[in-house]
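task queued by scheduler; priority normal; single chain, no ligands, no partner chains; default sampling; output format set to structure tokens
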Amino acid sequence: MNDAVPTIDLAAAHDGEQKRAALVAAIDDACRGTGFFALTGHDIDAPLRLEMLDAARAFFALPDEAKRSIAIEQSQNHCGYATFGGERLQPDLLGDAKETLDFGIERSADDPGCSPLEGPNQWPNISGFRATVERYQSAALQTADTVLGLIAEALELPTDFFREWFVHPLAGTRMVHYPPVSEQELDVQLGCGAHSDYGCITLLATDGTPGLQLLRRDDTWVDVQVPDDALIVNIGDLLGRWTNDRYRSTQHRVLSPTDRHRFAVPVFIDPAYDTPVECLASCTSPEDPPRYAPITAGAFIQSRFDDTFAYRATED
């Protein structure tokens, strides 16, 4: 392990006021620091995490024709398969050396309450696949609710402050496959280019293969190393805007493996599409006025998709 990513045990949230206060302080320190922490004691147990990673392996092992049959460009709500180079997170490099499969929370296409980033998913024809994804999403949302409550307390807000904006969240679950590449390819193409996440918080599970790095405040890259049973949690741009950069999102990247395949499952926990995101009263003062204009969560996230996904640039 390394000290860039502290380990925080979520179980302490239910162990009395003193331990909860210490937990809130630890999360506040992590969010003020690198914006990353390793989370244990969460609601995604080891069997479910392994089942989800196995589902990812099963999907990415399908023939290209089967994967492309649920291509993301066929979706009206940004759900489906994106092939290698389909996303470019670092503009000065080639498209990312990864393939992805994205899901939202399943909603009917004719649901009048759907935003442009919500609707039906495209499911592969793999037995039990959808059930696994939906159980994983549910556990991730339960974990996120606890984490956001602790963040609210750290920001001197009521524990349930964020909850009203997450009744119908924009919760994106992604499966990612990074195939091995040669040492020479690492100079011109990353598995995932340097970027910050767009939304509120991200909960990441990996298969343990190294590659994830974060950019420290001294502009040096450091490997993210966490316990095997931990989720990697990081804050995104929207939470940075909400907190007036008290909690700043952190640039991170993934170096492609050279000797094995790497699989990862991030869940992007973002508020409802129409959520107004503006500086919280506890994060501003006459000496530190708001740094960002108000914006809705959906408009901001859509703008970031438009900048990084090749198929959305083609649509525009």
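post-processing summary
- The first helix runs from residue 17 to 32.
- The two ends are 44 Å apart (CA to CA).
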